[in-house]
Design brief:
The chain is an alpha/beta fold and about 400 residues long. The strands form three sheets. Strands 7-6-8-9-13-14 form a six-stranded parallel sheet, sandwiched between helices. Helix 6 links the parallel strand 4 and strand 5. Helix 4 packs across helix 5 and helix 11 crosses helix 13.
Length: about 400
């Protein structure tokens, strides 16, 4: 069947350009479109399949109220909510195979909010003149699998250059929708169990060994970089029931959130698996480190033990007070778990850079975390074990695999 793509834009400001992109999708690459207008100003431009009035109504308001309101943030939220509800309904009815947006700052913010509400795997392309602006690109993508198509030139008028940009964007979304989206049902129908695993560069050896060992036993292992965004996305995907178990090698985003580090994974890190009751095996890579922005260093940070990972990233060692606070937060989250949890804690360092010759090696402080966690855990489903190993030792990878297989059997 011919693929159908949902097109989202503010036609009051991007009408001519929208028409050209829709035409390119329909005629050049041979897909159908459904045009959704998310304009907030009154206009008589363009032909939308889903009008701004319908979007406003879906968001619990009316287009008259939207047009006359001066509360920009409120009406933007209303239109986004309405657009999300419509997009989700269209997807549930199998009426769309992908989504593409066109806009400047406001249009891009609105369209990508709609995209992020749609599931992982559905093709999503955002054509934006502001895709490269500091702070906006990360806001547009969030934890979504969105392709940002940076127009570079302003989306205004139909110069030969902009026409070419729009035609290439049409080709991009058309190419993406030719690949079938892997559904949750398809994953669950497989005989292979799927395991989510957080990882980071400083525990890459362990992660690689665990993956290879589990794959050899017939498991699929999906890795997520624990840099604050992908591990946050991992939590979202766990909560949607995409995985049978979790190996959390690098849950340092919990402490980074408490302490204001760059790898913060938000307030709900380490919660999704516990809520739905799937097995978890947890290791402590990165828990004893933080990476605050250097522009926000507190006075004592300059005297901390540190490790320069590269020219952009520096890890600081947590002090005793901080690591106990992080242990309390881990205990609070794990005490709420409704499924089995195995916490494996090596005593000879928690990463490849946490070794005796390293400036950050401080096992006595790590013991404070272990002792506090043991003291605060009040959930019989949570089992804590220590081992006279470094986290990167292959023997530790064997223990992780063994622990996971035990709880899955």
């Amino acid at each position: 069947m011919e693929k159908q793509i949902l097109f989202v834009a503010t036609l009051d400001t991007k009408n001519q350009e929208s028409e050209y992109l829709v035409q390119a999708i329909n005629q050049i690459v041979g897909c159908r479109t459904l045009v959704m207008d998310i304009s907030m100003a009154a206009h008589t431009l363009g032909q939308a399949d889903i009008t701004a009035a319908e979007v406003a109504k879906s968001g619990g308001s009316s287009i008259a109220e939207i047009n006359k309101s001066r509360e920009r943030s409120k009406i933007t939220a209303t239109m986004i909510n309405g657009a999300v509800a419509i997009a989700e309904k269209l997807l549930a009815e199998n009426k769309i195979d992908g989504i593409i947006g066109l806009g400047g700052s406001t249009g891009s913010l609105m369209a990508t909010d709609v995209m992020r509400a749609l599931p992982f795997g559905l093709p999503k392309v955002m054509v934006s003149a502001t895709a490269a602006l500091p702070g906006l690109a990360t806001r547009y993508i969030g934890t979504g699998d969105i392709l940002l198509f940076h127009s570079v030139i302003e989306i205004a008028g139909l110069s030969p250059l902009l026409k070419n940009v729009l035609e290439r964007a049409a080709g991009a979304i058309a190419g993406m929708v030719k690949v079938e989206m892997l559904s949750k049902e398809s994953l669950q129908s497989s005989n292979r169990k799927t395991v989510a695993m957080s990882q980071f560069g400083i525990c890459e050896g362990c992660a690689s060994a665990v993956r290879h060992k589990l794959e050899a036993k017939g498991y699929d292992v999906i890795g997520f970089s624990a840099a604050g965004v992908c591990d946050r996305a991992m939590e979202d995907m766990i909560g949607k029931g995409l995985f049978d178990a979790v190996i959390d090698l690098a849950p340092g985003g919990v402490g980074e959130h408490l302490l204001g580090g760059m790898r913060s994974a938000g307030p709900h890190r380490l919660e999704a698996a516990g809520k739905i009751g799937i097995p978890q095996v947890i290791a402590p890579s990165g828990i004893n480190l933080m990476s605050p922005r250097k522009s926000r260093y507190k006075p004592d940070y300059h005297q901390r033990k540190k490790f320069d990972l590269d020219k952009l990233r520096t890890f600081l060692r947590l002090n005793g007070e901080e690591i106990v606070m992080v242990a309390d937060e881990f205990a609070r989250k794990l005490n709420a778990a409704t499924g089995p949890v195995k916490v494996l804690l090596p005593l000879k360092g928690w990463s490849s850079i946490d070794v005796p010759e390293s400036p950050i090696y401080e096992p006595e402080t790590d013991l404070l975390f272990i002792e506090q966690l043991q003291k605060q855990i009040a959930n019989d489903l949570v089992k804590i074990k220590t081992f006279d190993l470094n986290l990167e030792d292959e023997a530790f990878a064997d223990l992780i695999v063994e622990s996971l297989l035990n709880v899955l059997s």
